[in-house]
Amino acid sequence: MTSQPLPHYYTVQARASNTSNVTLESTGLNAMESAPPVEFGGPAGYWSPETLLVAAIADCFILSFRGTARASNFAWESLHCSVAGTLEKVDRLTQFTHYQITATLVIPPESDPAKGDRLLHKAEANCLITNSLSGTVSLETTIQVC
C-alpha cells in the first residue's frame, strides 16, 4: 500500500431531524449513528462526537506506531492503548484540554524494549490527529516481552 501525495481530503455527511440521532456517512463506509453523550443528557449506547474524537486519537496512535515500527524494522506482537480525554470550560468555552494515552506494547524476546518505547513516543509525536488539536497530550507506556 502506497501513500498518496498531499493534500488529502476527507468528506463526511451528517443528517438528522429535530428528534433523531445523527447519521454519519462517508463514501464506501457503513453509516453510523451518533448522539450526545450521556454527560450532556444523551442516550446510552451511541458514539458521540466526543467519543469519536478520542477514538480517532487511539486509532491514529496505533496506526502511527505501526508505520514507525515498520520503517524501523521493529518486531512487535500487539499494541493496546487507552485514551482519556478531559473536557473542561476554559474562558467560557467548553473544550478538550488534555489527552492521556496509556499504551501497552507486547514484543518478542529478540526486540529491544528501549527501542519499542522510543518508537511509541515517536508515534505519539507524529500522530496527525493530536497534532491537529489544541489540548496537551501525555503518554504512559508499558513494554511487555512475550
Describe the secondary structure blueprint for this structure:
Elements: E1 13-15, E2 22-25, E3 32-34, H1 49-71, E4 78-90, E5 93-107, H2 113-126, H3 128-131, E6 136-145
Parallel strand pairs: 5-6
Antiparallel strand pairs: 1-2, 2-3, 4-5
Helix pairs in contact: 1-2
Can you put this structure into words, describing what you see?
There is one protein chain. By secondary structure, the protein is an alpha+beta fold. Helix content is 28%, strand content 33%. It has 3 helices and 6 strands, in the order E-E-E-H-E-E-H-H-E. It has helices at residues 49-71, 113-126, 128-131, and strands at residues 13-15, 22-25, 32-34, 78-90, 93-107, 136-145. The strands form 2 sheets. Strands 1-2-3 form a 3-stranded antiparallel beta sheet, with no helix packed on it. Strands 4-5-6 form a 3-stranded mixed beta sheet, with helices on one face. It starts with 12 loop residues before the first strand and ends with a strand.
Descriptive terms for the model:
alpha+beta, three-stranded mixed β-sheet, 146 residues, three-stranded antiparallel β-sheet
User: What structural class results from the helix and strand content?
Assistant: alpha+beta
Name the overall outline.
globular
Question: What count of helical segments does DSSP give?
Answer: 3
Beta-strand proportion = 25-35%
Strand-and-helix sequence, N→C?
EEEHEEHHE
* Low-pLDDT stretches: none
Radius of gyration: 18 Å
> What is the tally of beta strands?
6
Span of the ends, CA to CA: 29 Å
Strand order of the largest sheet: 1-2-3
Q: What does the largest sheet look like?
A: 3 strands, antiparallel
Mean pLDDT: 96
